[in-house]
Structure to design on (729 residues):
């Protein structure tokens, strides 16, 4: 009993000391306006959490209840910290507190961004957490150095981090790859298809938004402590100088890169997961610009080209005036892929029976492309130029950045041989800056969505909820009897009708060349439409995957449409070659992809597994006798050269170089490369092909970036001089 009395008295004494200390040094205040603001914020955020509670409960991990409880408690916390203000009377304590707050706030900010990245900070590596922490702190330091205000540091930096991380969350959801700095340059393209996706916030967005509001409230209530003038000068100079030194060392030297502090170029998704969003996004900004390859010498391009493989000649017929040049039609089919390359996949019906049946007068195989889920134009760039985006900065987009002047391409090779050149893409012309790019490639004619239908219908559709059935009703009214759409996009079948119409109305004095990028299978697979027969579903998986099954049904529609195109040209007397290939695999449920691949998640795939996600089919069919062939592995940078060889037309020296290189390294893409023995390499691996790849990079650099010293004899036929065209529409 004596001990309990003493302990009780001691506890009372400690409580009194703490109470006196708190009353002496802290003051809690409030106003009617703050209380109203607090109640409003609390009510709105609580309503938001309750509205999305089912998304928390729909998750399969055990902590979902704790997350929901946390989300339900947060509105009450936000109410209290908004309604009441704690003022520290002691300036010294105030200074100490705000110093600690400056060190703690980056942890809260990183928690917010990583919530949107789909991980929690305890899942990150120590280096990853430290990197994210330092980037956020440096941003705070820079703003403080410029303004002298801690409040502005939080209020300016936090919305930036939240906005970028939110964009990353949606980009990962929609296309399955991280948000990279280069994505800013494709903003207009993204806006064009943005209405096809579901933006309802998931549980991660809800929690991150609550944390964001918390930081902003703290920011608004933060008042920078009073410091002596000398202390202000020293603190602002120190934070500013330290930030600038670190940024200069990062961007201007290779010190950090040599230490291994750089993005995971091989697997950006894995890098974002292991090392966090803020750190990876920041690291990628260093690689926005293209630097000259080591030992590059424009006068040695001939030497680089002649140094690959053996001295054997590429088999091409002798071209003379009597040779009838075949018409050549190249089709890049949006998101066309055969998902069985990922693993065991069976369906209720075959989703590409006609394409599988093509054998006679057909060259076909597996095409390895540089992107997954999005980034169509990078595959398009590789096909049309023969260049690989693997040598460009990770996450960059060639169309948006590098095609600012006329450069050699498949178009220039066709036009040098008297071909007409026609481009068709049944969506907005400015997507991926195609109008400008196609002009620099030299296309004579470009037909886009603006030429196909009254574009005001699209605007009305987008302004009224983006319902595919509503758009269909508008099209039916405006174009009765025309079966133009599948979902909300121009169908492959109608796309091919337009292609055939142009072919029939062509200038018959010239051989015909057309390049067509379809739109039917574009992402946004969650939405159903009355004009879309969802006839295919996977039978080898554990549950019904809505997006995956819709996608497979779209592939079946593509197969039917391609059959109709081939049947039409089978009855055309003029020799014609058609090449059709997929630009990338779709963005569908990651759990479906994981299940088909037989892996728990997609973060730690082997090189071979990662390459399988970059695989699409290609077909080269002719309406006359050609040698049949199946090519197991080929990357998209080689495909146009193979088309030219198959068609028997003239090749540039660069085309011949690529065909020789493809015999040694049949696949070169953003994942790595595969040699002719089937050995898979990552870009970080040491290999016997390093010198050969370095030469390829130098040759490519000459055409893209060194226009003043471009070796015309390598890239062009008969001294052809490329010029930007005024495209006819």
């Amino acid at each position: 009993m004596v001990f309990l009395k003493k302990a009780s008295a001691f506890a009372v004494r400690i409580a009194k000391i703490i109470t006196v200390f708190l009353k002496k040094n802290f003051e809690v205040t409030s106003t009617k306006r703050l209380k109203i603001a607090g109640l409003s914020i609390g009510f709105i955020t609580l309503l938001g959490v309750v509205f999305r509670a089912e998304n928390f409960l729909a998750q399969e991990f055990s902590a979902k209840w704790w997350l929901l409880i946390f989300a339900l408690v947060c509105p009450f916390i936000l109410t209290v910290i908004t309604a009441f203000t704690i003022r520290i009377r002691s300036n010294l304590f105030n200074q100490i507190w705000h110093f600690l707050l400056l060190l703690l706030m980056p942890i809260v900010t990183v928690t917010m961004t990583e919530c949107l990245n789909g991980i929690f900070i305890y899942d990150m590596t120590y280096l990853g957490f430290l990197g994210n922490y330092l980037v956020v702190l440096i941003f705070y330091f820079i703003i403080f150095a410029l303004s002298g205000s801690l409040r502005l540091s939080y209020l300016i930096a936090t919305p930036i981090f939240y906005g970028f991380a939110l964009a990353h969350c949606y980009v990962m959801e929609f296309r399955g790859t991280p948000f990279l700095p280069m994505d800013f340059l494709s903003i207009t393209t993204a806006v064009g298809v943005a209405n096809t996706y579901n933006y309802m916030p998931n549980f991660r967005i809800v929690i991150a938004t609550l944390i964001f509001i918390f930081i902003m409230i703290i920011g608004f209530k933060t008042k920078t402590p009073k410091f002596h003038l000398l202390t202000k000068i020293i603190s602002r100079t120190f934070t500013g100088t330290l930030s600038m030194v670190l940024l200069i060392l990062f961007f201007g030297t290779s010190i950090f890169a040599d230490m291994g502090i750089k993005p995971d170029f091989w697997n950006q998704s894995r890098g974002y997961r292991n090392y966090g969003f803020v750190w990876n996004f920041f690291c990628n900004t260093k690689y926005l610009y293209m630097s000259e390859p080591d030992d590059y010498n424009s006068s040695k391009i001939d030497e680089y080209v002649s140094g690959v493989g053996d001295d054997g000649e590429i088999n091409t017929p002798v071209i003379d005036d009597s040779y009838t040049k075949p018409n050549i039609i190249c089709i890049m089919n949006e998101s066309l892929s055969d998902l069985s390359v990922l693993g065991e996949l069976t369906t209720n019906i075959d989703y590409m029976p006609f394409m599988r049946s093509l054998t006679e007068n057909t060259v076909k195989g597996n095409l390895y492309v540089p992107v997954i889920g999005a980034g169509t134009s990078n595959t398009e760039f590789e096909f049309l130029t023969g260049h690989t985006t693997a040598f460009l900065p990770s996450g960059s987009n060639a169309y948006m950045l590098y095609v600012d002047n006329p450069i050699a391409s498949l178009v220039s090779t066709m036009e040098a041989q008297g071909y007409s050149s026609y481009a068709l893409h049944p969506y907005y012309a400015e997507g991926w800056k195609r109008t400008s790019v196609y002009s620099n490639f030299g296309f004579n004619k470009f037909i886009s969505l603006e030429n196909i239908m009254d574009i005001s219908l699209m605007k009305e559709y987008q302004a009224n909820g983006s319902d595919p059935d509503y758009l269909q009703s508008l099209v039916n009214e405006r174009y009765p009897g025309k079966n133009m759409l599948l979902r909300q996009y121009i169908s492959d079948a109608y796309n091919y009708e337009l292609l055939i119409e142009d072919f029939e109305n062509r200038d018959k004095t010239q051989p015909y060349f057309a390049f067509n990028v379809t739109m039917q299978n574009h992402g946004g697979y969650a939405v159903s439409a009355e004009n879309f027969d969802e006839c295919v579903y996977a039978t080898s998986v554990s549950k019904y995957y809505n997006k995956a099954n819709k996608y497979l049904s779209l592939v079946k529609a593509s197969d039917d449409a391609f059959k109709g195109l081939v049947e039409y040209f089978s009855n055309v007397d003029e020799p014609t070659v058609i090449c059709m290939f997929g630009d990338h695999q779709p963005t569908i449920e990651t759990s479906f992809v994981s299940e088909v691949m037989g892996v728990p998640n997609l973060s730690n795939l082997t090189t071979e597994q990662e390459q399988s996600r970059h695989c699409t089919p290609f077909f080269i069919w002719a309406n006359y006798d050609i040698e049949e062939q199946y090519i197991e592995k080929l990357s998209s940078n080689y495909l146009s050269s193979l088309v030219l060889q198959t068609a028997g037309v003239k090749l540039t020296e660069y085309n011949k170089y690529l065909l020789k290189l493809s015999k040694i390294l049949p696949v070169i893409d953003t994942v790595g490369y595969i040699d002719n023995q089937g050995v898979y390499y990552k870009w970080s691996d040491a290999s016997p092909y390093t010198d050969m790849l370095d030469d390829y990079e130098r040759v490519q650099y000459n055409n893209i970036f060194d226009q003043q010293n471009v070796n015309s004899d390598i890239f062009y036929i008969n001294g052809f001089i490329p010029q930007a065209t005024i495209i006819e529409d």
Notes: Residues 362 and 621 are 4 Å apart (CA to CA). The chain has 30 helices and 15 strands. The mean pLDDT is 87.
